[in-house]
Each structure stands twice: as C-alpha cells, then as structure tokens.
Design a protein that fits this description.
mainly alpha; MetI-like fold
Length: 275
C-alpha cells in the first residue's frame, strides 16, 4: 500500500515538473517571438517599407512613452494620470459586476422562481451593446465618473451572469442526489456542492467580463471624457500624433495582460483543490 502511494506521489511530482517546464518553454518562446516582431517592425520602418505617417517605429513609441510619463502635452495630462483615471473606472465597474452578477447568476441557475422572475428583464437588456448606452448616459449623467462606471458595469455584468448561470447548471447530478440522500437541505447543497463546482465557469465569466469592461471603457472615454487612455488615443488622432496613439494602445495591452495574470493567479489559489 505504501509502495503504491509512493509511486503515485512520484508520478504526480513528475507531472507537475513537466507542466512547469512546459510553461517556462512557452514563456521563453513568447518572449522570443515578441522580440523578433519588434525587430522586424523597427527594420521595416527604418528601411522605408512602412510609411511613418501612419506607423511609427518601436523606438519612437518608446521615446514617446518616456516623454509622456512627465509631459502633459498635448492632451493636458501625463500618462500616469490617464492610467489612474481609466483604472479607477474599470475596477469600480468590474467589481460591481462581479459582486452583483455572480450571485445573481448562481441564484438564477439554482432556483427556478428566481430564474423566471429575472430572466425576462435580463434577456431584454442582454442584446443591447454596452456602447449603445453611452448617448443615454451622457444625457442623464453627463461625462463624469458615473456614466462610464455604469457602462463598464453593464458590459461585464452580462458575461458574469451568463457564465455563473452555466457553471452551476453543470453541477454533477450524482453529487446532488447523494447530498439529498444524506439529508442535506437545498440551500446546503447549493452552498457546499453547487457553488464550488461552478467556480471554474465563474472565473471564466470574470475573465470575459474583465476584457469586455476594459475595451468598453476605452470606447466610452473616446466618446465622452476629458481624461483616460481612450481620451489620450483620441487626442493623438486629433493632433496627428501616431506615436501617442500607439503609446495608448501599448499601455492598454500591458495593463490588460497584468490584470489577466492577476486573475489567473487568484483562480489558481481559489481552485487549488482541483489540482
């Protein structure tokens, strides 16, 4: 018995080591591919294969990035100010969507009366793109913080609800039946069986919602704002500053990558029991 247990432990250790090595190789390959892409991009611009009127070299983007860290021109704010403005709105809206959408989706998926009551209103709102709410929000709330938070919330809310709903619907029926046989109440099964089994899909919904909220925020800032990364990109277009536009795009991509990495890290901690 002990020998079999030792073999199993060693096999699991080998598998984990293999996964770590595979992840490291993937990271190394990704870094190499990015470096090659940047080198080809720089070379293409320097040799005149790409016109600088529409596409500037990576070196110029880097110089513009460094300059924008302290320079307020031409849009009236530095890059850190724009980042903080966008982050504040996106995080508030996204967290609201998570805190409201997750329990709502779980309850709709588990309790039929809740589903019947909420679904008609949810299906009415669901097809409307979040960007479509921007004109109405400008009329009602102006161009301050509140309308952009609402738009971000709405864009993430739908994805969070749908994935939470789908996750708890996939709960293993055998586990539910065993719990009922042991005398567990419906709420206890919901809390002890349904929610844990739904968490992988819940995290998927959070990731989708995070991506949607970030992209929707940038669109909202382009249409109704006086700061933020979307506004900075719009200012770059108005002043024909291609390098400023690309600094904004690069910043959005890097921040999005960091946020997704943090969410993946949180998922690994919460769902450690599945490993």
């Amino acid at each position: 018995m002990n020998t079999n247990q030792e073999k199993l432990t060693k096999a699991i250790a080998r598998e984990r080591k293999h996964i770590k090595n595979k992840s490291r190789n993937l990271l190394f390959t990704s870094i190499i591919s990015i470096v090659v892409l940047l080198a080809l991009w720089e070379l293409s611009v320097q040799l005149g294969w790409i016109t600088t009127r529409f596409f500037c070299a990576p070196s110029e983007v880097l110089n513009a990035l460094i300059e924008k860290l302290t320079n307020r021109a031409p849009d009236g704010a530095t890059l850190p100010v724009h980042i903080l403005s966008s982050m504040k709105i996106s995080m508030v809206g996204f967290l609201m969507a998570v805190l409201i959408g997750t329990p709502l989706g779980l309850l709709m998926g588990w309790y039929k009366p809740v589903d019947k009551f909420i679904r008609p209103a949810f299906n009415l709102i669901r097809p409307i793109p979040a960007v479509g709410w921007i004109p109405l929000m400008i009329v009602l709330l102006g161009i301050g913080l509140a309308p952009k938070v609402f738009i971000v919330f709405l864009s993430a809310f739908v994805a969070v609800v749908l994935n939470s709903y789908a996750g708890i619907k996939l709960t293993n029926r055998a586990m539910i039946n065993v719990s009922k046989t042991c005398g567990a109440s419906n709420f206890t099964i919901f809390r002890r069986v349904g929610i844990p089994s739904a968490m992988p899909m819940v995290f998927t919904g959070w990731k989708v919602g995070l991506g949607l909220s970030w992209s929707t925020l940038v669109a909202a800032e382009m249409l109704a704002s006086n700061d933020g990364l979307g506004y900075m990109i719009l200012a770059g277009r108005q002043f024909m500053r291609v390098n400023l536009i690309m600094v904004g795009m690069l910043t959005i991509g890097v921040i999005g990558l960091i946020l997704f990495a943090l969410l993946n890290w949180l998922e690994k901690i919460v769902l450690k029991w599945r490993q």
